[in-house]
Amino acid sequence: MKKIIITVVKMAHYQDLIDKYENPISHACNMTVGQIFIANGWEKPEGMCDSAWESMSAFVMTLAHGGEDFYDGWMKNKKSAMISCNDGFRPVSFLIETLDEVIYSPSGC
Predict the structure, then answer these.
(1) Domain encompassing residue 40
(2) Beta strand residue intervals within 33-104, DSSP E
(3) Rounded distance, CA 42 to CA 83, Å?
(4) I need a labelling partner for 102 at 20 to 30 A (CA). Which of 23, 25, 62, 74 fits?
(5) Is the pLDDT of residue 101 over 60?
(6) Which phi and psi angles does 37 have, rounded to 5°?
């Protein structure tokens, strides 16, 4: 199984929507542009937001198992995907790419 690098590439903040619709919350997203996470297949990287992981985990799993070319040529690099979390108030865009490293798997898969 391949390691996957997940990079925070863009963050948005829609204060008008927050003011109009969101109840005050004490902790919002604490990621920063340029922040990198490494995923070992199906394992959510430490520090990754649960909501963001739910948005990208299927793409991460596919890439980790050697899949590529999502949506028939969507990405210039066929071993990558651009995924955003599902927070409508503070969406974060992530570039997900396959690393050339291969993770040791005790089962030989």
Answers:
(1) 2-102
(2) 36-40, 80-84, 92-102
(3) 16
(4) 74
(5) no
(6) -125, 145
DSSP 8-state code for residue 72: T
Distance between CA 2 and CA 104 in Å, rounded? 9
pTM score, whole prediction: 0.86
Q: Helices marked H in the chain — which ranges? A: 15-21, 50-64
For 22-77, what is each residue's pLDDT tens digit?
Answer: 998 877 788 999 999 999 877 899 999 898 999 999 999 999 999 999 999 999 99
Per the listing, tokens 């909501």 go with: 51
Residues in the chain: 109
Q: How far apart are CA 79 and CA 99, in angstroms?
A: 9
State the residue for tokens 């890439």.
63
Nearest-angstrom CA–CA distance, 19 and 22: 6
